[in-house]
Amino acid sequence: MRRVMTLTLAAAVAATAFVAPAAAADPGQSRIDKGKFSTDAPWGAQFIRVDGSRPNAIVCSASVIAPDWILTADHCLTYQNTGRKFAVLVGSLKRGEGTRYEVASHMSKYDVTLMKLATPIPEAAVAPVADAVPAMPSADIEIYGWGLECPAQTNGCKPAPALKQATLTYNRKARDHKGGPALGLQRGTGNASNGDSGGPAWAGGKIVGVASTAVRDTAEYSSVGEPEIRRWIRDNAGV
Question: How far apart are the first and last CA of the chain?
Fold first, then answer.
């Protein structure tokens, strides 16, 4: 495929396994390819596996959508023996820095996951979730993540030292890694890569997607503005 994993928040968060499921790469392998470093994304979160494979490693990107709720991708939690305990780093754009918050519970719908924090983030900077799917075509979809700085499924890359972002075009309807509705994006100033998984896609000042899969020039972001998914987020996270 092209799973993203941990975009991971700057070129749409590069960081989960944005490679096709059939040939998924390790979620913690990469970051946004090309793009630029972010300077203002206080809602960004770095996803950590506390146990399982790669314990305490930052493997995906995520977003704070409420003081005690984090939005990310389901495959970040389930890919290759990821374990049962998770945490996030919040408050810094630099990889590996920030305040750590433990995850108390989580729930998923398709490749979208909501994580409930054990302790709310004081004075949290939260990212608003869109109430509708953006119009198509749209050439101003901004993605964020801490993933690799080279295309998905490329060996020998290192994760970005800080959150990155890139602008892509929404030009087709697609399906995410778990079969849910997704935004089909085309490379623009950059593209999502491994480790960007779970990272957000923004349009109109709100999150419209969550990084699910990607290849060299295209990416699929779970569409959180779809009525079914939007209701699910509102019913559970209250936002």
Answer: 31
Looking at the chain, list the stretches that DSSP marks H as alpha helix, in order from N- to C-terminal side.
75-78, 227-237
* Phi/psi at 70 (5° precision): -120, 140
For the chain, the farthest-separated pair of C-alpha atoms sits apart, in whole angstroms, at: 42
Share of the chain above pLDDT 90, in %: 71
**CA-derived radius of gyration, the chain:** 15
Q: Which residues of the chain have pLDDT under 70?
A: 1-31, 33, 80-82, 151-154
Q: Which residue has the tokens 């419209």?
A: 208
Give buried/exposed letters for 24-41 (b at 16+ CB in 10 A, else e): bbbbbbbbbbbbeebeeb
pTM: 0.86
b/e per residue, 68-88, with b = 16+ CB within 10 A? bbbbbbbbbbebeebeeebbb
Q: What CATH number corresponds to the domain at position 61? A: 2.40.10.120
Q: Which residue has 């970005």 as its token pair?
A: 160
* Among 177, 168, 119, CA closest to 141: 168
Query: 56 lies in which domain range?
Result: 1-239
């999502």: which residue's tokens? 192
Count of domains observed in the chain: 1
